[in-house]
Amino acid sequence: MSKICQSCGMPMENKGQLGTNKDGTINQDYCKYCFDKGEFVDKVCMEKYIDMCSQFGEQAGMTNEQMKKHCQKLFPTLKRWKNENN
Fold first, then answer.
1. Domain ranges of the chain
2. Is 19 left (phi over 0), alpha (psi -120 to 50) or beta?
């Protein structure tokens, strides 16, 4: 499987990590932490979301500052954020 969430960039390696649509079907684009029952869990702008995600640097094997820089590069390329005006 090995895709990444189009909201937070988390690797999605199995179906249990996938989000759900309003009708309960699996959403292939977003992880369950970002997208549940057809809605984004955190309704914030990209800049705020980068700050939130940067707190998980250690889980990704980097410092929180490295994670923030990684997210600042990655997020503008992801489906959720491509059309957001920041």
1. 3-77
2. beta
Q: Which two tokens stand for residue 33?
A: 């932490």
The model's pLDDT over 50-80, given as tens digits with 9 standing for 90+, comes to 999 999 999 889 999 999 999 999 999 999 9
Six-digit token string for 47: 């800049």
As given in the structure block, the two tokens for residue 6 are 């189009």
Q: At what angle do helices 46-53 and 64-74 cross, to 10 degrees?
A: 150
DSSP assignment of 60-80, as one string? GTS-HHHHHHHHHHHGGGSTT
Name residue, tokens 């977003």. Answer: 30
**Length, in residues, of the chain:** 86
Q: pTM here?
A: 0.87
| Structure tokens, 59 | 């889980």
